Every structure is written in C-alpha cells, then in structure tokens.
Amino acid sequence: MDAKIAQMLFSVIDELNQMRPTDDHLVKDLEMPLSGDSGILDSAGLINLIAVTEQKAAEELGRPLVLTDERTLSQVNQVFQTLGTLAEYIHLRLNEKNDG
Amino acid sequence: MDNKSLMCVLVSDFNLQNLAGYVTNDSHFPSVKAITAPFGQPVATLLNRELPCWQNTPDVAVIWTQPQSVAPAFKALLNYERVQLQTVLQQVDEYCALLVNMSEWVKYALVPSWVLPSYRSVFGILDMQTEIGLTNTIMRMNLRLAENLDKASNIYVLNTHDWIAQAGIQAFSPKLWYLGKIPFANEVFKAAARDIKAALRGMLGYARKLIIVDLDDTLWGGIVGDTGWENLVLGGHHHLGEAYADFQHALKSLQNRGILLAIVSKNEEQVALEAIRKHPEMVLKLDDFAGWRINWQDKVENIIDLMTELNLGPQSAVFIDDNPAERARVKESLSEILVPDWPDDPLFYPAALFSLRCFELPSLSQEDLDRTTMYLSENKRRKLKKTVSSLEEWLKRLAIRVHIEELHPANLQRATQLMNKTNQMNLSTRRMSEAELISWAQQEHHWLWTLRVSDKFGDAGLTGIVSLKIQDQRAQIVDFILSCRVLGRKIEETMLARAIHHAQALGIDNVYARYIPTPKNKPCLDFFKSPASRFQQQGDCFVRDGKQSFPIPEHIEIVLTQK
Question: How far, in Å, CA of B23 to CA of B32, rounded?
Fold first, then answer.
C-alpha cells in the first residue's frame, strides 16, 4: 500500500504542476517540504493539494479519504510538512478504516 | 507563428487562480500569460480602468462570474423569493453595459455563460417555469447576455455548459468552494483553458481552413479498389454505414461554415472518382472538394502539392486518415499540419471531427461561406491559364475588376479578419481589433482602402488592404495586405497605384514602405524588391520619390467608391 500511496501522490504532483509556473514545479520526492516554514505551497496550493489528493485517492486507491476534517487540520503543519509525512498520514488513516 | 505571450486578465467574483495556471501552462499556440484581478470584485474591476490589471493594455480579458454576483434579483430568486423576470434582465443589461465599456480597454473579451449546479434543481418540474424556475431564468439571462454582447465586435460569450459536461458529475466542487472560493473542479478549468486558447487562435487568424481526408476506411468503409464502389460500407441500414455517412454529413456541415475539403488518397484516381460520382449514399459530391490528389505517390508530397495549388500554408490544414502509419508520416514531415489521433472505431468519427478545437472564427463573413466556390473558380482560372500563351493574355481574359473603397462599418469586419489572418503578402503584419482598426483609419492624415477582386469566374471578395499615413511631407504605406487567393494578378500593383496616386494628389511625391519581417511574409519582401513595385530598397524601407505616375495595370478595371 505504501508504494501505491507514493505513486498516487506523484500523480497528484503531476496534476498540481499543470497549474503551477514551470519554474516553480513540485518534484516527485517524498522529502519535498510542502507546508510550514520551509514549505513550497501557499494556502491556495495547499487547498489544491488537499482536493486533488482526495480525488486521486478515490480514483487510484479506490478509497474515500477526507483531509479537511478537524483532526487533520489541527495538525496541518505536521501532516503536510513533506510529501513523505502526508504519505504516512494517509497510510495511517486508510489502515484505521481497515481496522474498523 | 509569433511566440510573443499574450497578456490575459481574469476577472471574477470567485477564485480563478487555477484557471490562470492552466491557461499560462498550456503549451499550445498562442503563448498566454494570465493574471487574476482581485477576486470578489468584478463590478468594481470593470468600473476602474486605473487598476493595475488594466495597465499595459491587456490583449484579452476573461470575465467569468456567478449569476448571483451580478444580478441581485437572481440572488433573491436563489432564495426562492418572488422576483420579476424583467428585473433580472434589467440587471443583466446593466452588467452588459459595464462589459461593453471595459471592452475598449482590451483587444478581446471572453465572457463564459452562467451556470448553476445541477443540485440546485430542487423543485424539478417547476425548474423550467418562467419567473419561478432557476434554470428557466438562467437560460433567459444567458440569452440576454449573448444578445447584448453581440453588438460589441470584440466580446465573445463562451459556453460554460460544455465545460461542465466535459467535467462530468464532479464539475461543481463544494470542497474547493468552501476551502478556496473555487466553485468548479479543475476539469472545468482545463476545458475552459482549451476553449480560451482555441478562441484566441481564431482571433489571431490561426483557425484551420482545410480538412484533407483519406478515402478508404475514412470517408467510407472498405477498399474501393478491391471491392468496387457498389460494395463500400456507406449509409443504408448498417451501423457502420450510418457512421460513415454521418461523418460525411459532419464534413459537409463544416464546409457550410467555410472550411475547405480536399482528398489525399492512395488509390486509382478513376476508380475513386467513380465511387464518389456513382455511390448513391455519398453525401459529399466532387464539387464539395476544393482539390484532390488520388494516386500512389507519397502522401506528404501530395499534400505539399495540393496546398501549393490551393495557396494555403500547412498551418491551415488538418489531415484525417484512418491509417496510423500515414498519420505518423505526415505528422513527422509536416509538423504544422494538425494530424489528430483518430479513433479505431468509425462509430466515433463524427464526434472526433466535431471535438477538434481548431476551426474557431471570431466572425463569419460571406467570403468564409463562399470559400469552396471561390476555390472551384480558381481551378477554372488555372485551366484557362494552361490554354493561353502568355500571362498578359491570361490576365486580359480573366476580365478582372477591382472595387476600391475606404474603410466603413459594412466592410470593417471582413477587413479586420483579413488583416488578422494574412501572413504572406503582409508588409507590417499588424494585428488589430475592429475598434482599433477603425480608430486608426479615422485619424487625421491616415487613409485605408479595401479592395474587392472579381473576374469572369467569380468574386474573390474583400482580399486586399492598403493604408497610407502622411507625416512631414512623406507618405508611408503602413499596411499592404493581399490574400494569397489573388496573388500574381497584378492586384499588388493596383494597390500601390491607389496609394501613390492618393499621395501625389495631396502634393506628396516621397512615398515609402517599411517592411517588418516575420517568419511568413517573405513574399511581400520579394514583391517590393521586384521591378514590378518600382521602389528602391533602403535598409528595411522601400522608397519611391518623383512625380512620375504609377499606372494601374491595363487589364484591370477599377471601380472606386469614395466616402
């Protein structure tokens, strides 16, 4: 599942780059900082990341994912610190659903 | 093609940042740099020319609003309050007046039509009732919007419903709306960006004018050389036959809008032509084709030959062939020709043709509608040329008549269209909107004439523009534009004669033309360098000084209409 999540997030990056200036493209690297002090995304970029990630999770993983709930937004800088932290969080959330 | 980026301003009551990204990143011609005006203030933005977004005269503005933000009465209707339709429409009129006023600040303005999320049809069967139904009201508002903006020559209403349909059930995004004031999913913006770019290509004169089609398994099912025309799959009560017939109907409908059709096919010419003439279900007749090359030669060579005959450049053409190998060969060798990927299944041919976003014209002139007839007349001229002994004899027998008249509202649309799409015989390649062109021509010491060319085979329509600017006792030929349809018939000399005669009548003998090179306008340079122009080259200028007259070619009859 981890590899699938990473792959899904890379397709999210492809999608987001279609809207970003060519000299400001996001890279497909799990270490890439997203949000917070060293983050690349502004608030509009973060909104698009959330919306596209939810859409791609449904399309590519076949799993509904909500990233606008209070739990996620209360730790937004941790969850969206890098692409890797986002992947770990998605893994956690999807496994919780499996457990339930 | 000119790679300079167009400046595009996006004005909206919602967040259009994503659309700006898609439009700017779209790699198709033309290059566009999109910026967003502060969102949430469309009316204030349309009222204030001093805002930073309007500085430096943007090329195009896209004004995309939600209906409730420009028509408060519609907002009340959304709350199911009682509202008179007339009040809503009056507010649409007021909004349109703002748009028309703003349109003077830009070359072109695009206004996407209004849409409502499908989930707002709460009351189902009441939705289409006048003054009650939201959909009924939105339809009337859009109709009023289109009717009002029809009067402005540089504003075009775009069909948002098409983008919504392309995006499907997820077109409206509550998530993006609540998080970022973005009402639509990104699929809607992608479709919008495609249409905006297609519209701009049309406005800049890069709409495709010619569709070159293959025959076997493209225009009909089967190989005519193997099966004979009697056994082709075309029409009748057969799903494939119906699809091929519909594809021909689709081509015919585009031809009715001025798109030329031509054939390039590997076949025995007589066998193929017999099929076209004799098959009872053929929708397209031989007269529907401006030309054809049906033989066993390489298709690339045939296309080049055909386009030379039709006086069209490769950027004008679309090539449709069922064979991927032929498509790849043409795509590789003639990169400016549009070679769309083509469905394997003929049932999708008509839809694939209509989905091409390359035929968009900013206006539809009589010349557009008569284009095929003009090319058939040109074939007759060529046949005549083969029977006479000299160029002079041919020109004399054509009985050419040139109507010269100044720019006025009735010829403005066609003159602007010619100015914006002529690449080869074009001295300065100025691209202007109707408003800009008439404004330039009305300035003191400026003159602009249009030329309509006809002969015994037909009327080529408004095909020439020459303009003159007088300053410091010198006359500058600013525009020298001639459609390739009438090149080589000494219309060029007629245009110079008109300009020089006018300057001399004003007592000015020093006439010059400044050639501004583009990748396409070398034919114009060649003409000015030739003895026929009687100009001397001085750097990038061509100069003529002296009192000697410039006679109109003998074989041309002039009809001059003065203001």
Answer: 7
